Amino acid sequence: MERITFHPILGPQRIEREPVSFTFNGRKLTGLQGEPIAAALLASGIRTLRRHEESGTARALYCAIGHCMECRLNVEGRGKVRSCLTPLEEGMRITEGQQLPNEITGRKLQ
Amino acid sequence: MNCSSMIICRCEEVTLVQLEAAYEAGCRTSRQLKMKTRAAMGACQGRVCKQLLETWIIAKNPASPRDPELLPYRPPVRPVTFGQLAKGDV
Amino acid sequence: MTKTPAYDLLIIGAGPAGLSAAAAAAEHGLGVAVLDEFTEPGGRMLGQFHEEKGRWWVGRRVAEQLIEKCSVLGVDIRCGVSVHGMLRTDHSWVVRSASGSISAARVLLATGAAEIPQPIPGWTLPGVMSIGAAQVMANVHYVKPGRRGLIIGVNVLAMAIARELSVSGVTIAGIVLPERNSVSGQDALPEEAVKRLLNLAHLAPSPLLRIGGKLGARLGMAGTLSRIFPRDGMKIWGIPLQLRTAAISINGQHHVESVTLADVTIAGEIIPGSKREVQVDFVALAGGLYPLAELAAVAGCPFVYAKELGGHIPLHNENMQTPVKGLYVAGNITGIESALVAMAQGRVAAAAICRDAGVLGKGLEHTLDEATDHVRRVRAAALIQFHSGIPDAREQLYKKREEKAWM
Fold this sequence. Notes:
The complex is a heterotrimer of chains A (110), B (90) and C (407).
Chain A: E1 19-24, E2 27-32, H1 37-43, E3 48-51, E4 58-60, E5 72-75, E6 79-82, E7 93-96
Parallel strand pairs in A: 1-7
Antiparallel strand pairs in A: 1-2, 3-4, 5-6, 5-7
Chain B: E1 7-9, E2 14-15, H1 16-24, H2 30-37, H3 50-60, H4 82-86
Antiparallel strand pairs in B: 1-2
Helix pairs in contact in B: 1-2
Chain C: E1 7-12, H1 16-27, E2 32-36, E3 49-52, E4 55-58, H2 59-72, E5 76-79, E6 83-89, E7 92-97, E8 100-109, E9 113-115, E10 128-130, H3 131-139, E11 148-152, H4 156-167, E12 171-178, H5 190-198, H6 207-219, H7 222-228, E13 234-236, E14 239-251, E15 258-263, E16 276-279, E17 282-285, E18 289-291, H8 294-298, E19 303-306, E20 311-314, E21 327-329, H9 339-356, H10 366-380, H11 390-399
Parallel strand pairs in C: 1-2, 1-8, 2-5, 8-21, 10-17, 11-12, 11-17, 12-14
Antiparallel strand pairs in C: 3-4, 6-7, 7-8, 9-18, 13-14, 14-15, 15-16, 19-20
């Protein structure tokens, strides 16, 4: 999705950020240092952040302020984080959360 | 899409159909709905769906009490790892 | 041995209430820290802006001033910190977060509000978000939520944010009602929507709505107004406001592609043959706000239900004190109002805390009374009212609580 480079009322972004590279599901992308991971992904046109653990349906940003937990994904070395609250850093290796196996129904890891 | 298969609890994917079935099975308060369907038991702990469950059950059963203890908040109210807990207090 | 708490006052939430309380308390010499789980301080006010009396009120500017004031006064503001619990030990609080525990003599909860959802079939699709999320992404993170969006839910929040998004350069295809189902209740009725909009009538650029608004409110004409409301809707700030149209389902394979709309009667019933699809790539759902008071519950604070204030709120008096010793509240956690009221309440809480801590000193006893008077004035002057019954609800709530009954 388009970034807003200059806002007619708010002016330029409050903090000037350096571009950084990172990977999402192995794909190399660029974002801005310190912006929430979810914002960097959205700016790259990526909405899906995780697959529902049981149904596998695609899930994305919903509340953007850390309440709903929908945006949770994996950052290598940090485990599972809320991507709407976690600042992006250079070299981060990020992957979407996956549908899990189910012992009761017998579904194996895809 | 059929309205009744609409999801109410996003985390546990509990639908209106499941809430109706729980009501048929005798659930009359938001707490009973939670226990029967797992609504409000998922990752967000009811932050998103609590209001919907209350609205729904009060519409079905106006005698259902408006008591915040029916769907309470228990610590930890934000994600924390065992490692962080093990570090202990200041 | 009792350890001295690290801070005299720990504030949870760095929004307008928390920051203004921090500055006021620090001015009286208290050691203050503010925690917030968001990436930067300022709370939801960071993303808010609106027009009043021909000028733009910009939340971010107000936040910057408060943050600067706090910095000068030595307030410790820590962002990216999520509080998961709190408990009382001896004469102080231990507040637990993922990055460790912090002790404080007194705690102020200023955690604000969370959104009430407006579920529509298909609402879990990527591209569907809460109206607040659209505001945060556009105005705080400077990323557009999408190219063309639809807003579902007609209320004060939806209208204010629709305006902001449009000014921010995001195309809004329309603002429509949710379909009538077992959780949308009154939200799906055109007449109720008109009633809610009457609280905003003074902001509408259209003279018809402005006049209609004043008239409607005085004569109780919400029903008539919704009947004569044009079926195609009417443009407000260039955005189609469609009070006779409901969203039936949100469609798409892997993400939002379109929304199915239908015309509705005054009773919210779908008019057969009117279904159509509108192509959008994001949907923002507006269902209202409720006080986010989890920590008050964890701390053992009793609650009271007040519909006009957004639901279950922590019990408190006009001085922002709760029945729990050393626990105070301010801002939207006390009931949904506005950033201006939140800031005024923050100052009340700080005055009460300073008085309880014995640092208010001679000649400053009036500070608390002045602060509570100020809240009432700010409330009366509020341009945007979420609910018309707020002043009465507050009066009811505070009338019952005598300060001497506690502590």
